[in-house]
Design brief:
13 helices; two-stranded antiparallel ribbon; hpI Integrase, Chain A; three-stranded antiparallel β-sheet; 2 domains; mainly alpha
């Protein structure tokens, strides 16, 4: 019968050298599904780097696929010496690392798993990082939107308009979830549950939840005595209901006449936060982004002495990630500074 297992001794044994070209190919549908496994922003960045690599290889008359370790090293060296068309400044080491990852991913999807070897390219990134440090470059981090900053930004929201209520909800959800901008953009009306003292948000998947099992995140009603997260989010839901919206994406595009559109992208969420920072006339408005909302909660929590594991769990950081420590260490350095005199 067709469903019977074929005995091992009757199975055809194929020597790897005899595999045909088709055995190493992926269909367009499979490639598309593999692309969906990567975050949309990362996928767009990978596509941009791969196009740059293809164009450079054509100019240099080098083979792009499969790419040799030497060609990859030369391409990274080229990027080190070429200003970014977006900023006019040299590419950062993290950008070069992303370019390497993009090329490796393209090879994997084309059936060239394990190629090209990256040791030489990574050594060049290391040299680039050292050179930038010697030239005075330093990593600029987003300004944490702590409670004092959050108050100023909330004050700039027009609570009488639908867009103003949306902006206020964006701020308290971003702070309360310690959320990534992609997570904020993915929140739907049906993901919210209200209690007397808590707002529960269902996060269906996150960067550290690759299996998409999802989890509930609890946000206390009082983020501060003068910041009622439940009232702010409910106020926005009431405005949505007034326009006939009771399900679907929570954070939506709203035109100047108050008409509602589709759900916001992560980039649009970031733009809103930037605009609110400017409207609030923050001194570091240019450094205030949606990531600042994710950083603000941990910063305030560390100030209150909340243990790091609880902060990491709430913000959906990987247990092995050191990223959350970047928000905690500044407070710890000041609190435990060896030169600080304590009475």
């Amino acid at each position: 019968m067709a469903s019977e297992l074929v005995p091992v001794e009757q199975a055809q044994i194929v020597v790897p050298e005899l595999l045909g070209e088709r055995d190493h190919q992926l269909s367009g549908e499979t490639i598309a599904d593999l692309q969906r496994a990567t975050a949309a922003n990362t996928e767009r960045a990978y596509d941009r780097w791969w196009r740059l690599a293809v164009d450079w290889c054509e100019t240099e008359q080098r083979t792009v696929l499969p790419m040799t370790a030497q060609t990859l090293a030369e391409f990274i060296g080229h990027l080190m010496r070429t200003p970014s068309p977006r900023t006019g400044r040299p590419y950062s080491p993290s950008s070069l690392n992303q370019a390497i990852a993009a090329i490796r991913t393209a090879h994997y999807r084309a059936g060239h798993e394990g190629q090209p070897h990256t040791r030489a390219a990574l050594e060049l990134v290391k040299v680039h990082r050292q050179d930038r440090a010697d030239d005075g470059w330093r990593t600029r981090r987003a300004k944490p939107v702590t409670l004092d900053v959050l108050r100023l930004m909330l004050a700039s929201c027009d609570r009488d308009s639908v867009s103003g209520r949306r902006d206020a909800a964006t701020l308290v959800l971003g702070y309360g979830l310690m959320g990534r901008r992609s997570e904020l953009a993915a929140v739907r009306v049906e993901h919210l549950t209200f209690g007397d003292d808590w707002l529960t948000v269902w996060v269906p998947r996150s960067k550290t939840d690759q299996s998409a099992q999802g989890e509930e995140v609890e946000i206390p009603r009082e983020l501060a005595p003068d910041i009622d997260a439940v009232a702010i989010v409910r106020g926005y839901l009431e405005a949505l209901a007034g326009h006939g919206v009771t399900s679907g994406p929570l954070l939506r595009r709203i035109d100047r006449w108050g008409n509602l559109g589709d759900g916001l992208s992560g980039a649009a969420v970031n733009d809103i936060v930037k605009q609110l920072a400017q409207a609030a006339r923050l001194s570091d408005a240019e450094r205030t982004t949606a990531h600042g909302l994710r950083a603000g909660g941990p910063t305030d929590a560390a100030e209150r002495g909340v243990p790091i594991p609880f902060i990491a769990e709430h913000g959906r950081w990987s247990k092995s990630s050191t990223q959350v420590l970047t928000y905690v260490r500044q407070h710890d350095r000041r609190r435990n500074n060896p030169l600080l005199r304590k009475e």
